[in-house]
């Protein structure tokens, strides 16, 4: 697959460090735990591991409130543990991607402590401070992502500061060149330590309207949606000056060999594409969350893939995501049977797939009993906790699922004794086996890994498409419904082909053509 970069051919595995593996018996995962479990990730056939934040932090937002951009939280270990993890990853052929949180720090970061200490402190302008309106209310109508006003009054210095997320996560002022220089130094620190790239947390928030004008109301808001969505985020993020920031970050990583920039960007596709940058000078992979956000129906998903492929800039590399620590798990969203279709889709679409830990064994969303909730969003706004998708990895059927020797920080899913890596490892029909086979197929097939994509007309609940490269052609047929379906003609070269994988894992080598019959919730991959 000459001419392509590792992250184009590669598969990214996302670890939520609190929940992967505990080795020091505090019920919370750690770096040594991740290191011990890297073989699982490599064994799946993944190429890179992205680790959610492990920096020193008061943990108000579980690490996304960073108090030191160049350290490791003692909960997770030490810098030496981090170096060992990177070395072990190298030995296994895995890349390591660091989570980087540019938009805001913790309110306990020394920069903010200085900034809030007085109005004339040299770091005052490192954050976004404004006077109250004459009636004492906040400077504008912006709402925090976690609900409530995005401004907090500081009694001591008599001004408000901006926090797009928690009050304990003040927004840095990216219009200040000193802030940018300091953040770029922090990125260099990790690049020099050997990390292979960054996942940039809510990077599109870094640049706001310089005049901080009000956001307009959102006519599409309906009860049940979070409060933040009562307004359109017209002025509070995604300002056109983001182009400058993202290209500066790209220039920085380009000083190093073959590093990767992923942007966490929840924007409509048209705007998302801007983050590839002019002449692809921006993020390599602006995360594409549309498979999470689009209704799970064949026609909708087919239209989405068509639209996304059509909007990509010339040479822009696609990517696909089914889940992360902020979104309900795919097995819960679409159901266990369709989660197999989702996996087949993820690993056969064109573009880099990112796999969220636990989805390879079909982990569900876990109901958290009252009193065990941990997520700050859940505490600030009823109904929006992200705990259900963050529960500990289910490794085996020993006590605490092999995750820890003590009661974990969040409860295990009740199904852990049956649903775990060890049991699925032995089961030729398991979700884990399906993942291994899908990934192996993708890695072994240039058509699947890097080939072109084209859709076949969608009939009923079926979404079918082809991947092709240099004469090789692969046909993927996915039944999004719970009824049998028949596709009459798949336009197979020579009119016939062979099933190489079914989501049910029991149709290997069956000859098919010119069409195919699918069982309920079945997907197949056909080679010509
Ligand atoms: C991103 C993270 C999320 C966090 C937020 C604020 O969306 O993925 O977990 O709460 O940013 O940092």
Q: How is this structure best described in words?
A:
It is globular, with a radius of gyration of 23 Å. Strand 7 (about 195-200), helix 6 (about 240-255) and strand 8 form a beta-alpha-beta unit. The two termini are about 20 Å apart. It has helices at about 5-10, 30-45, 80-90, 110-115, 175-190, 240-255, 270, 290-295, 300-310, 330-335, 335-345, 375-380, 420-425, 430-445, 445-450, and strands at about 10-15, 50, 95-100, 130, 150-155, 160, 195-200, 260-265, 285, 320, 350-355, 450-460, 460-470, 470-480, 485, 495-500, 510, 515-520, 525. The protein is α/β, with parallel strands linked by helices. Helix 2 runs parallel beside helix 3 (about 80-90) and helix 5 (about 175-190) runs parallel beside helix 6 (about 240-255). An eight-stranded parallel sheet has the order 9-8-7-3-2-1-11-10. Strands 12-13-14-19-16-17 form a six-stranded antiparallel sheet. Alpha-D-glucopyranose (GLC) binds near residues 101, 325 and 326.
Tally the helices. Answer: 15
Mean pLDDT: 98
Bound ligands, named by name, code or SMILES: alpha-D-glucopyranose
Shape: globular
Q: Which structural class fits the helix and strand makeup?
A: alpha/beta
Beta-strand portion reads: 15-25%
- What's the helical proportion of residues? 25-40%
Oligomeric state, counting identical vs distinct chains: single chain
Could you give the count of β-strands? 19
* Terminal Cα span: 20 Å
Biggest beta sheet summary: 8 strands, parallel
Write out the strand line-up for the largest beta sheet, numbering strands in chain order.
9-8-7-3-2-1-11-10
Q: Rg, please?
A: 23 Å
- Uncertain spans: none
